[in-house]
Specification:
Number of strands of chain B: 22
Protein name (chain B): Chemotaxis protein CheA
Distance between the termini of chain B: 46 Å
Keywords (chain B): ATP-binding, Chemotaxis, Kinase, Nucleotide-binding, Phosphoprotein, Transferase, Two-component regulatory system
CATH class of chain A: Alpha Beta
Radius of gyration of chain B: 39 Å
Catalytic activity (chain B): ATP + protein L-histidine = ADP + protein N-phospho-L-histidine
Largest sheet of chain A: 5 strands, parallel
CATH superfamily of chain A: Response regulator
Oligomer: heterodimer
GO molecular function (chain B): ATP binding; phosphorelay sensor kinase activity
Enzyme class (chain B): transferase
Helix content of chain A: 40-55%
Helix content of chain B: 40-55%
Structural class of chain B: alpha+beta
Number of helices of chain A: 5
CATH class of the largest domain in chain B: Alpha Beta
């Protein structure tokens, strides 16, 4: 069965790159444009793993991760943070919010797939 | 979709982000301190940087990074966004736009300018932020961008679906010398904490990754597993002892646990050291259990079954109940799903309610390829024509006039009109992007001329057809240049005149009776009428003794070959004058006017149609042909009297209108519809204004009426016909040609239209 990935990113460019990369690697990809939409889509899509950006309008990545973790059904889902912030402070905040791991933008397709495989069975 | 298409999307997105950036900065410049504005500005730059990095656009990344760093200082309240700061930021936004364009279209940017701004941005970031983080990061953005987290496990990726390949185990090797295969061995003790599982990490997966580094032996320690009654189903009780032989080094091992390092106790030691420790710990009653990861392969789930010999029964019960810590979490989640379905649903409802609240402001949009919209507009055009044809034939055949067909037809007409309006609304866009471009032009020219200018835009959400917007930028740019360069005085002159040293240019858009009205007002010196008049006389544009009203003098600036600037400046003296502006506005079916008050400034008013797809026209008959004359070109219509017609030379005639003479042009003759000129007294004269403001009386045989027509391109369907702008289809199904008034007037000046003109007799 195809693994389902939910990506949350406000940038159309990044969304498209994620879509192409993930589809090529044989994942089923569902996309949302910000944290609020991410939480909505989460309910219907039941993904195996989530890849989210940090800087987004309406609800940022930190808020989104906290939202996912508050949901009993999804609190054990692996969440990878996709962001250009490589500094420890942002990483730490994402981790505290409940992120499983991170990928630094600009992401290398191989690294993205690798990171997803690292956190999914 | 390939990378080139994504890159195209990236540049589209950049344009949107740049617009967002600029409008945000302008809001901040007006004193907006809403954190969301600052965030939006930050996100815009951040997004551009993110995408640019993906495409290896290093210059763009480098600049965006410095800009972002400074914006971050504003965002975190370390830097007060005062006017000086925002000035630098607005300029930086311009450079960012230049860099984006250069990345897309090639070409170069003003490097000294961008370098200067990088310094200014860095100074801003450092000035208020003595911490070295920003300062050390800023000059070396590439290095920072490359400081990605350590590479993930470098072993080749497995190909099977479960993502796992069983690792061979050798019990004989356990506790061995650690030199088998000549690889260094490490002992890894991995003890997850509760948090590890709560963040979606999974000990199994980490161990699986570890197994990819080399040959390893793994033991699960269950000593801390409590009895069932004390067991927290979500607790973390197991820990693992791993001996691994790998040549990848200790760092590679630690990298495996990169995501988990805060949430576990991890010891990694080369095996000699570990063995020394182990000897001293020999008394500890720890009974290692072989732990076979390969069972994962069979079940396909994340199950680990392990048991200590000593506590086999107890543990087995616990394991059976709880399997693994990670699985427990899922099970608990499943249980909770039932129990807490209501609360989850409530949370979801709350989230969607919040989303709706937010969405109310944002509005829902979809992106549609422009071609599709154009196609729809074309089809609706056909529908309108078809409906008109249907109406006409019903009227011709239905003599009673009371049938229900008439009723239905009226409704159809109503619906068609509504559909047409709605479809046109799809292509309508706010003038905002064009207005935003103007603010950059104002900034640049203000800088170049040393003037201080404030651009105020109003009604930027006023919508107009995209085809009009696309053609609006050029004339507007020229007018803004003129207003700033020639209209607004230098600060010294303004001070001397008792005005605010900062000049104001106001750009307004609004809807007026089915057209869009764009006003450009400056509070400069206004038109120097004496100078304009003198210039017009010098250039032989008007006779020296012409008696002109103030308004007429003001409008002289639209004449071809007119320029009042004493010296040709870099900015607006590029050989194009206001006549070019006027012509391009007229080409759009628009009009332009100026009113000026000496000492108080000038106001240019442009009135444009909302769309180029339909046109208000006057339907006329010429030599049996039906033609459409754009209503915007017509000043007035009149019935010539024999006494008003005067012959002039062999072929020319003039008509006197209120004591002035105006050349009379027989449209039928010009278009070669007939060989000899018609008798003017039998026809109607349309007084039209053409480029340069010259008036002509166009002779047509009769006026049929006034109506809105759907424009059909002749070039696309037939070929260019001189004197004809386009075509349309009338209600009776016949093609009617739309007159190109400027071309006809030009032809009447002597350059007669070519013989192929007779081809214009279509239909």
């Amino acid at each position: 069965m195809k693994k389902k990935v939910l990506t949350v990113d406000d940038s159309r460019t990044i969304r498209n790159m994620l879509l192409v990369t993930l589809n090529n690697a044989g994942f089923e990809t569902i996309q949302a444009e910000d944290g609020i939409e991410g939480l909505e889509v989460l309910e219907e899509s039941n993904p195996d793993v989530i890849v989210t950006d940090i800087n987004m309008p309406r609800l940022d990545g930190f808020g989104f991760i906290e939202g996912v973790r508050r949901n009993e059904k999804y609190r054990a889902i692996p969440i990878l943070v996709l962001t250009t912030e490589s500094d420890a402070e942002k990483k730490n905040r994402a981790r505290q919010a409940g992120a499983t791991g991170w990928i630094v933008k600009p992401f290398d397709p191989a690294k993205l797939i690798d990171a997803i495989e690292r956190v999914t069975a | 979709m390939d990378m080139n298409e994504i890159k195209e999307i990236f540049f589209q997105e950049c344009e949107e982000q740049l617009a967002e950036l600029e409008s945000g900065l302008l809001k901040m410049n007006d004193g907006d301190r809403d954190p969301e504005t600052v965030n939006a500005v930050f996100r815009a730059v951040h997004s551009i940087k993110g995408g640019a990095g993906a495409f290896g656009l290093d210059d763009l990344v480098a600049f965006a990074h410095v800009f972002e760093t400074t914006l971050d200082c504003v965002r975190s309240n370390k830097l007060e966004p005062n006017q000086d700061v925002l000035k630098v930021m607005l300029k930086s936004a311009d450079v960012l736009a230049d860099l984006t364009n250069a990345a897309r279209d090639g070409g170069s940017v003003d490097e000294s300018r961008s370098r200067g701004l990088v310094k200014e941005l860095e100074a801003l970031a450092n000035g208020e932020l003595p911490s070295p983080s920003a300062s050390s990061e800023a000059p070396a953005p590439k290095a920072a961008a490359k400081a990605a987290p350590a590479a993930p496990a470098p072993t080749p990726k497995p190909t099977d679906d479960s993502g796992f390949q069983p690792v061979p185990f050798s019990f004989d090797d356990f506790g061995g010398e650690g030199d088998a295969g000549g690889m260094p061995a490490y002992e890894v003790i991995f003890k997850p904490r509760y948090e590890l599982y709560s963040k979606g990490n999974d000990a199994t997966l980490l161990l699986r990754d570890l197994s990819r580094l080399g040959e390893m032996t793994i033991y699960c320690n269950t000593d801390e597993l409590p009895g069932l009654e004390e067991l927290d189903p979500e607790g973390a009780y197991f820990f693992w002892n791993v001996t691994i032989k790998t040549d990848k080094g200790e760092d590679a091992i630690r990298t495996v646990f990169e995501f988990a390092e805060w949430d576990c106790e991890l010891t990694v030691k080369p095996v000699e050291e570990a063995r020394a420790d182990a000897t001293s710990n020999d008394e500890l009653p720890m009974v290692p259990v072989p732990f076979d990861l390969s069972i994962l392969d069979e079940t396909g789930a994340t199950e680990e079954v392990s048991a200590s010999d000593a506590r086999a029964e107890e543990t087995a019960a616990a394991v059976a109940a709880a399997e693994t810590a990670s699985n427990v979490t899922q099970m608990a989640a499943a249980a909770a799903r039932v129990e807490k379905k209501e609360s989850a649903a409530a949370a979801a409802a709350a989230a969607s309610a919040a989303a709706q609240n937010n969405a109310a402001g944002a509005g829902q949009t979809i992106r549609v390829d422009l071609d599709r919209v154009d196609r729809l507009i074309n089809l609706v055009g056909e529908l309108v024509i078809n409906q008109a044809m249907l109406s006409q034939s019903v009227i011709e055949n239905d003599t009673t006039g009371t049938s229900s067909i008439n009723m239905g037809l009226e409704e159809l007409q109503q619906l068609t009109r509504e559909i047409q309006d709605s479809v046109m609304a799809i292509r309508a866009q706010p003038v905002k992007p064009v207005f935003q471009r103007m603010s950059r032009i104002v900034r640049e020219i203000a800088d170049m001329t040393g003037k201080s200018i404030r651009l105020i835009t109003e009604g930027e959400n006023t919508e107009v057809d995209k085809t009009v917007i696309d053609k609006l930028a050029e004339p507007l740019t020229h007018m803004i240049r003129n207003a700033v360069d020639h209209g607004i005085e230098t600060p010294e002159k303004r001070a001397a005149a008792g005005k605010n040293t900062e000049g104001t240019v106001r750009l307004t858009a609004k809807h007026r009776s089915g057209r869009i009205l764009i006003e450009l007002a400056d509070d400069g010196a206004g038109i120097n009428r004496e100078k304009v008049r003198q210039k017009a006389i010098d250039n032989d544009l008007i006779p020296a003794d012409a008696n002109l009203s103030d308004e007429e003098i003001d409008n002289l600036i639209f004449l071809p070959g007119f320029s009042t600037a004493d010296k040709i400046s870099d900015i607006s003296g590029r050989g194009v004058g206001m006549d070019v502006v006027k012509r391009s506005i007229q080409a759009l079916g628009g009009r332009i006017n100026i009113t000026s008050k000496p000492g108080h400034g000038s106001v240019f008013t442009m009135s444009l149609p909302l769309t180029l797809a339909v046109l208000d026209g006057m339907v006329v008959t010429v030599a049996g042909q039906t033609l459409v004359v754009p209503l915007t070109a017509i000043v007035e219509t009149l019935q010539p009297e024999a006494a008003a017609i005067h012959s002039f030379g062999a072929n020319h005639r003039l008509i006197s209108i209120r004591n002035s003479f105006c050349p009379l042009v027989d449209v039928g003759r010009i278009l070669n519809f007939r060989a000899t000129q018609a008798n003017p007294v039998e026809g109607v004269a349309l007084l039209v204004e053409s480029e340069g403001g010259g008036q002509r009386a166009l002779m047509v045989d009769a006026i049929q009426g006034q109506r809105q027509v759907v424009i059909k391109s002749l070039e696309a369907n037939y070929t260019h016909v001189p004197g004809i702008a386009a075509a349309t289809i009338l209600g009776d199904g016949r093609v009617a040609l739309i007159l190109d008034v400027d071309a006809v007037v030009g032809a009447s000046r002597g350059q007669s239209l070519k013989a192929e003109m007779s081809l214009a007799a279509v239909g």
